[in-house]
Design a protein that fits this description.
The chain is an alpha/beta fold and 318 residues long. It is 24% helix and 26% strand. The chain contains eight helices and 15 strands. The relative contact order is 0.10.
């Protein structure tokens, strides 16, 4: 089987790795976005998928756009039977969708039609879903609207962050793809249309989404902390500086954070007598426990150590 793979971030490398290790698969090309300049030194950084592909001697293509005719002709010249897409980050125009006779298959980290769009894992955590999954689908010109080939389910742990859950889902997706790809190309499977009446659509995240709103509950803010890891993170401001709330918890996980008979104003920092959670912040409902923080320009630190350097943090109004 001859195919093209399209992907970008580190958590889809296991998908490409599974394809490389399949002796019945020939990878004609790996498509990934152009290198980007990052960091203070603005050094050029290649996408993780490119790094893996080069290590394994795979041909790499990095067009800035798939809409150019010469790019489409180059891809067609590779003669893929199927194209596999995993977090590539760009829409595929119809000219690309029509290149492989077995279509373009996409791994999406949710059980479609729930959580279509750019942030399915983040939304899964924000909404407190107890289960999620991964979908192998046939791409069309819509946003995650194509017919479903196969799905599998994954439980969401109370400790899962967007980072850990995304990695787990694409590991699961790699196994699902390995099971379903050959039967699909052989014409042994039939894709089923999605039920659009059950569809939900996610939105692209912005940095401002990470700023803590103390009028939410501690449970909602805890979910935000997990959902926004690694980016944009959950943060607030203290003394004119950004304070990142790197590890937090709430009364759902620590019943001791329920303070009977005590009303803590939203945004007020209080001392807590809870092992591993020495301070907390009042919310509209419950207290958000603090375990690790990072003040702007400083290193991450456990809150117990942070309070030694900044005892005046207790009682602050954020």
């Amino acid at each position: 089987m001859r195919l093209v793979f399209m992907g970008t971030p580190v958590f889809v490398v296991p998908v490409l790795d599974a394809l490389v290790k399949d002796s019945d698969i020939e990878i004609a090309g790996v498509y990934t976005p152009p290198d980007r300049r990052q960091g203070r030194g603005r050094s050029s950084q290649m996408p993780p998928v490119k790094a893996y592909a080069l290590e394994h001697g795979l041909p790499v293509f990095q067009p800035a756009s798939l809409r150019r005719e010469d790019v489409q002709q180059e891809m067609a010249s590779l003669k893929p039977e199927v194209i596999v897409v995993a977090a590539y980050g760009k829409f595929l125009p119809s000219a690309v969708l029509n290149i492989p006779p077995s279509g373009c298959l996409n791994l999406h980290p949710s059980r479609l039609p729930k959580h279509r769009g750019p942030s399915p894992v983040i939304t899964t955590i924000l909404e407190g879903d107890e289960t999620t999954g991964v979908t192998l689908m046939l791409l069309d010109e819509g946003m995650d609207t194509g017919p479903i080939i196969a799905q599998c389910e994954q439980a969401v742990s109370p400790e899962d962050t967007a980072e850990t859950l995304t990695a787990a889902l694409f590991q699961l997706g790699a196994s699902l793809l390995s099971e379903q790809l050959a039967p699909w190309v052989a014409g042994e499977l039939t894709a089923r249309p999605q039920d659009d009446s059950l569809a939900t659509v996610t939105r692209k995240l912005e940095r401002g989404d990470g700023e803590a709103d103390w009028n939410l509950s501690s449970q909602q803010l805890n979910r935000r902390g997990r959902a926004f890891t690694p980016w944009p993170g959950l943060f607030t401001h203290w003394r004119g500086q950004v304070l990142k709330l790197l590890e937090v918890t709430d009364s759902l996980n620590f019943p001791e954070l329920n303070l009977p008979g005590v009303n803590v104003a939203p945004g007020r920092v209080v001392r807590l007598d809870v092992a591993g959670v020495p301070a907390g912040i009042g919310t509209a409902h419950g207290v958000l426990g603090l375990k690790k923080v990072q003040l702007e320009g400083r290193s991450p630190t456990a809150v117990a150590e942070f309070l030694k350097g900044y005892p005046q943090f207790i009682g602050a109004q954020l």
